[in-house]
Specification:
The structure holds two protein chains of two kinds. Chain A is α/β, with parallel strands linked by helices. Helices cover 41% and strands 22% of the residues of chain A. Chain A contains eleven helices and ten strands. In chain A, strands 6-7-8-3-9-10 form a six-stranded mixed sheet, sandwiched between helices. Chain A has a four-stranded antiparallel sheet with strand order 2-1-4-5, with helices on one face. In chain A, helix 5 (117-130) packs across helix 7 (148-160). Chain A is globular, with a radius of gyration of 19 Å. By secondary structure, chain B is of the alpha/beta class. In chain B, helix 10 (268-283) links the parallel strand 1 (259-265) and strand 2 (287-294). The longest helix of chain B has 43 residues, at 3-45. The radius of gyration of chain B is 28 Å and the shape is elongated. Classes of the chains: A alpha/beta, B alpha/beta. The A-B interface holds A 58, 60, 80-85, 87, 89, 91-99, 108-109, 112, 142, 144-145, 158, 168 and B 110, 112-113, 115-123, 126, 130-131, 134-135, 209, 212-213.
């Protein structure tokens, strides 16, 4: 496993977490770190514990054993409200507030932080442009008036609003059609490079992991099997990793076979 | 009298009742919202409380309203007679839909949205006010809408505990078989319910998400209109409230002046007897508060609870219904027994008999009595097997009513007696729909409809002598009472009582005016 180059922003030290209703732990003895500026993709099938890992970072869940440290400080020592406002969070379907306009949704954290109205307005315009939506057309609309892709862009803009050092993304593009997904993935890759954000990105799509991750963490049954750069992931001899890579080849082959 | 003429003559009273009704409904809905929404929010935070609290609210809503009113009367602080009791009862009924819809609305918020709110670093309070409540608002308002419509309906029954409102007209209309009164009570109540439903529907729409796709300007205009209506309505309400208070203050006079609360049961004769005492006391400088038309045994409960000082009663009713004795036929014995037991058990004094009895009167058509030469109930036994009888619910259900009566005389009718509203039986008899009824001996229409009272020759019916019941401490406190009660002893004959009833029930005259005339005629006005 390669070592992160810088002092880690997120660090898991032997973290375990179990749910009262389940016998087996959801996460057991998880250790890894995320360096500033990198995008760590957690790849795995549903139920492998990748979303739980994400929620342990912003205090939505607390570890049963071990420690999760953000900027060198344990999540148990953080004020959860402070930590969450310094952490952008994007989920599937956006989780936008249906009763807020686009502008109000994007302005949520700055408003909670008590920014000046003028500063909030400028920031909203800036962010909407950043995610490719014309502020004049979109600021006053409600989420129900947007397409799935547009909603997801607003979700990203909302997460970036207070300029948090860390972004958490939980299958943000999972519910989109393939074309929209591809274009959003491309834009997000550019954006995260340009903004130099640290991000933890959860997905079950190996294509997405290879495209976006500076490193890929392969999870299975609550354990981290592999933590590698995309280049090394492609060369990996790990059984699970090879199975994932196989899906890329098989699907490509079958398409060719079906073609006349 | 046409309905419109009726409205033209009575609109000030109608307007007062309407205001009272609206006031009851708005206050109780407001209180129910103030209790119900926080309770609902609490139940979303404490899941274990949800079952028990909703269960209790559910049970409270199944209590029959008259029973609830009766239950509330003796309670301190929240009970008594008048608007306060009615508001408490209305709140009890309005709570369930508000609590339930608050819980449903908040629990129904998309979990994705709630998770996003938490993850964005919103505090619990911010999530409640900025996310959960706004998103639950349409559902909560639906609950308020249901609660308000229920309150408008139940408030009509509030008249039975002296809280006023449109129910006064409805009860009076039922009693006097007067469609104008019924309509004047029921139509405004129905319109009020429709208006509330429509108004809150608009408000609900304003908060609904579906609206957010449409243009905003039109709904803003609607909301402004709605707010304007609400402001005007509350201005009217508060105006009436404060002017009401002013009247109350001016009426209360000097602090040491005597003050008596006079009550009555919910039928004309009782109200007339109460009004007689009230006017005579007022002529002697006593301040009188009137709590008329109280349903069932509410006057008794209210008097024991210290909310009433005095009300007219019948010795037979006290003897059987309150003291639970088996009926006996000696008027003197009944009177003495009631007097002794009331003094000892309740601290309540019984006045001298007023001079007439209101017992069950077995009535047949006058023409029939003359043709068959019938005088007594025994005379009628041979004919009864060809007759149909019609009785009020009261006579059918009580022990000394139909079952005892038919056994005592060995009466058999052609059919099972028809059970109907008492006031309808007189008309049913006069028009030949039935051939024998059990009316009240002082009913004003007996003479007017040419009905004949058969004599109770076996002395089956217990004596129902009219008396006043007075709290002993009131008697000690208000010196003028003794004088008034002495004057009224044996002062009202059966014929006079029938005449008074007839003036109010059949001629639809104002009862205060009828009483004033009678007092003048009797020379009771001057002190």
């Amino acid at each position: 496993m390669s070592e992160p180059p810088d002092k880690p922003l997120v660090e898991f030290c032997d973290v375990s977490f179990s749910h009262a209703s389940a016998a087996a732990p959801i996460i057991s003895h998880l250790s890894f770190s995320v360096a500033p500026g990198e995008t760590l993709v957690l790849l795995g099938e549903s139920g492998c514990g990748k979303t739980t890992t994400l929620k342990l970072i912003n205090c939505l869940l607390m570890p049963d054993a071990g420690e999760v440290c953000i900027e060198g400080k344990s999540t148990k020592a953080w004020d959860p409200i402070r930590l969450r406002r310094r952490t952008g969070y994007v989920i599937q379907e956006g989780g936008l507030f249906p009763h807020f306009t686009v502008a109000k949704n994007v302005a949520l954290v700055p408003a909670l932080e008590g920014w000046e109205p003028a500063r909030i307005r400028n920031r909203v315009d800036e962010l909407l442009s950043l995610v490719g939506l014309e502020p004049r057309d979109f600021a006053d609309r409600y989420p129900a008036e947007l397409s799935g892709g547009q909603r997801q862009r607003i979700g990203v803009a909302r997460a970036l609003a207070a300029d948090p050092p860390l972004l958490l993304l939980d299958e943000p593009f999972g519910a989109l059609d393939p074309l929209t997904r591809a274009s959003l993935q491309r834009e997000f890759a550019e954006l995260s490079k340009r903004l130099k954000k640290t991000a933890v990105f959860v997905t079950h799509d190996v294509r997405e992991a290879l495209l976006l991750g500076s490193r890929i963490g392969l999870m299975h049954a609550g354990k981290l099997l592999l933590l590698e750069t995309p280049e090394n992931f492609l060369k990996s001899k790990n059984e699970k990793a090879m199975a994932y890579l196989e899906t890329l080849r098989v699907s490509a082959g079958s398409v060719q076979e079906e073609a006349p | 009298m046409s309905f419109f003429n009726f409205l033209k003559q009575n609109w000030p009273e109608l307007f007062t009742l309407l205001r009272q009704h609206l006031w009851l409904v708005l206050i109780s809905t407001f209180v129910a919202v103030a209790i119900g929404i926080p309770t609902g929010i609490l139940l979303t935070r404490r899941k274990s409380l949800r079952g028990p609290v909703l269960g209790i609210a559910n049970i409270m809503q199944t209590i029959p309203s008259l029973a609830l009113f009766g239950f509330l009367i003796p309670l301190p602080f929240i009970g008594g007679i008048g608007a306060r009791t009615a508001i408490v009862a209305l709140v009890v009924y309005a709570l369930l839909p508000i609590i339930r819809n608050t819980v449903t609305g908040i629990v129904g918020v998309d979990p994705n949205v709630r998770e996003a709110a938490v993850a964005m670093g919103m505090t619990g309070r911010q999530i409640l006010w900025q996310v959960e409540l706004p998103l639950a608002m349409p559902v909560i308002i639906t609950g308020v809408r249901v609660a308000m419509v229920i309150a408008i309906g139940v408030a009509t029954i509030a008249a039975a505990v002296g809280a006023g409102g449109l129910g006064v007209y409805i009860f009076r209309g039922l009693r006097q078989y007067d469609n104008n009164l019924l309509l004047a009570g029921a139509v405004p109540a129905a319109l009020m319910a429709l208006t509330a439903d429509f108004g809150l529907g608009l408000l609900e729409h304003h908060f609904s998400l579906a609206k957010r796709r449409k243009g905003r300007t039109r709904s803003q205009a609607k909301v402004i209109a709605l707010v304007a209506v609400a402001v005007i309505a509350s201005a009217v309400i508060f105006g009436s409230y404060f002017s009401g208070r002013r009247n109350l203050n001016s009426a209360s006079g000097p602090a040491n002046s005597a003050r008596v609360v006079v009550g009555s049961k919910d039928f004309t004769e009782s109200a007339i007897l109460a009004e007689i005492v009230a006017q005579m006391l007022e002529a002697r400088g006593v301040t009188v508060e009137r709590k008329y038309e109280l349903g069932g045994n509410l006057p008794h409960d209210a008097m024991l609870a210290g909310r009433l000082d005095l009300y007219p009663e019948y010795t037979g009713t006290s003897y059987t219904a309150i003291l639970h004795h088996q009926p006996i036929t000696d008027p003197r014995a009944v009177y003495e027994q009631v007097k002794a037991e009331y003094a000892q058990k309740f601290g309540v004094a019984v006045s001298d008999p007023l001079g007439f009895e209101n017992s069950f009167a077995i009535l047949i058509r006058g023409a029939e009595a003359r043709k068959l030469k019938l005088k007594t109930i025994s005379d009628a036994i041979p004919y009864a097997s060809n007759w149909r009888a019609g009785f009020g619910q009261d006579f059918m259900s009580r022990a000394d009513g139909y079952s005892g009566f038919s056994k005592a005389y060995g009466l058999k009718f052609a059919d099972q007696p028809r059970e109907m509203d008492l006031s309808l039986t007189y008309i049913a008899l006069a028009s030949g729909k039935v051939d024998l009824i059990a009316g009240n001996s002082t009913e004003g229409r007996i003479a007017a409809l040419d009905l004949f009272q058969l004599e109770d020759d076996r002395h089956y019916f217990p004596p129902y002598e009219a008396v006043y019941l007075i709290r002993q401490d009131t008697l000690a406190r208000v010196a003028q009472l003794r004088d008034v009660l002495t004057k009224l002893a044996h002062a009202i004959s059966t014929e006079e009582m029938r005449q008074l009833n007839y003036e109010v029930d059949a001629n639809k005259r104002n009862q205060a005016e009828v009483v004033r005339e009678w007092l003048k005629k009797k020379g009771f006005t001057v002190t």
